[in-house]
From TrEMBL:
GO terms for molecular function: ATP binding. The lineage of its organism: Bacteria, Bacillati, Actinomycetota, Actinomycetes, Micrococcales. The keyword Metal-binding does not apply. This is ABC transporter ATP-binding protein. The keyword ATP-binding applies. InterPro entries: AAA+_ATPase (IPR003593), ABC_transporter-like_ATP-bd (IPR003439), ABC_transporter-like_CS (IPR017871), ABC_transpr_LolD-like (IPR015854), MacB-like_ATP-bd (IPR017911), P-loop_NTPase (IPR027417). Keywords: ATP-binding, Nucleotide-binding, Transport.
Length: 346
């Protein structure tokens, strides 16, 4: 089982390489993600960024090529088939985009939930019936108890799907594009339902989606780009000096264990950063400048001379004078790949 301090979801340097017709596709390229017990987090990314690959690994349907993936104390890279079955039945619950993957069409809402409980076993009939009613009530679809999926709206189907996913009291709820087939207002209502389930039951929740609108419904949104987590938006509420509630959203770059981070696209474009950039360490922040090799208009663009201690602070002085951004600890900065590469700094 997970120790008290261990996060419920932990991915470290997670890699997934697919090989198709002799060509390798790196769907995940060293992804890092930590979700603590009881948190609700959204992972947002464009098509092809690796979202589904991540969720398929976390749900135990696929195995990563390398790295660490742990969920509620289970090591997903080494777990055997018996542990995998138990993990999928009891530790995690899933909500997928397509109703057909979530609900059996010939069973009612209550029967779909009961089926999930039967598969996991354990509970007595009376306790099961009570839990079915509780779950449908919590998701505000008590009136759909005896109706089949085809008789429900898209939003009701996804609410029942969430109830099915929660049937066996999972520690972790995983949702892949749960609102992908819904209109905007129904999507918002379903996301709010997930948030209230998270608050009410304390189930750790990870929502994977291409829809940036999800960030309005969760405290933490992690951006995934090219198979890596790149930036995070944290939302908080504070009361200002006039007693008014202020909603604050702060964006942070994600720094991995070896110091790699990704600059947001707009930063890269704004300064036409490419190939390599200059870095400078200041007492409380790091500066990032265009490389500008060969540009006569940049004073002192020459790197420090060899010999003596070539400290980051010295490099900072050499970089001074070049126009550029200063990336403080927050808000986020970072390079398309601003990984410190000593051989380029000499
Ligand atoms: N089974 C596979 N074989 C080969 N390549 C794959 C396979 N599954 C995914 N990929 C590739 O891995 C990359 C990430 O795919 P993934 O489905 O995880 O992205 P996604 O962010 O979920 O995209 P979408 O939102 O379009 O579903 C893509 O380049 C995709 O083509």
């Amino acid at each position: 089982m997970a120790s008290v301090s261990e996060p419920h979801i932990l991915c470290t340097d997670l890699v997934r390489i697919f090989t198709a017709d002799g060509v390798e596709v790196q769907a995940l390229q060293g992804l890092n993600l930590r979700v603590d017990a009881g948190e609700i987090v959204a992972v947002v990314g464009a098509s092809g960024s690796g979202k589904s690959t991540l969720l398929t690994i976390l749900s135990g349907l696929d195995t990563a090529t390398a790295g660490v993936a742990r969920v509620a104390g289970h090591d997903l890279l080494t777990m055997g088939s018996r542990e995998r079955v138990a993990y999928r039945r009891r530790t995690v619950g899933f909500v997928w985009q397509q109703t057909s993957r979530n609900l059996l069409p010939y069973l009612t809402a209550a029967e779909n939930i009961a089926l999930a409980m039967n598969v996991a076993g354990g509970r007595r009939a009376q306790a099961r019936a009570a839990r079915i009613d509780d779950l449908l009530g919590l998701l505000e679809v008590g009136d759909t108890r005896d109706r089949r999926p085809g008789e429900l709206s898209g939003g009701q189907q996804q609410r029942v799907a969430i109830a099915v996913a929660l049937a066996n009291e999972p520690l972790v709820l995983l949702a892949d594009e749960p609102t992908g087939e819904l209109d905007e207002s129904t999507s918002a209502a379903v996301l709010e339902a997930m948030r209230s389930v998270n608050l009410e039951l304390g189930v750790t929740t990870l929502i994977v989606t291409h829809d940036p609108g999800v960030s309005g419904h969760v405290r933490r949104t992690v951006q995934i780009r090219d198979g890596r987590t790149s930036t995070e938006v944290l939302r908080s509420t504070r009361v200002d000096e006039h007693g008014e509630e202020q909603h604050i959203a702060e964006e942070f770059a994600v720094l991995d264990r070896v110091g790699r981070l990704q600059l947001p696209h707009e930063f890269v474009q704004a300064l036409e950063l490419r190939d390599r950039v200059r870095l400078a360490l200041e007492p409380d922040h790091v500066g990032v400048w265009p490389g500008d090799e060969g540009r006569a208009d940049v004073p002192d663009a020459t790197p420090p001379v060899a010999g003596g201690a070539d400290t980051p602070r010295r490099r900072a002085r050499h970089a001074a004078g070049a126009s550029g951004i200063e990336s403080a600890a927050a808000p986020a900065a970072a390079a398309s790949e601003a990984e410190p590469r000593p051989e380029e700094e000499r």
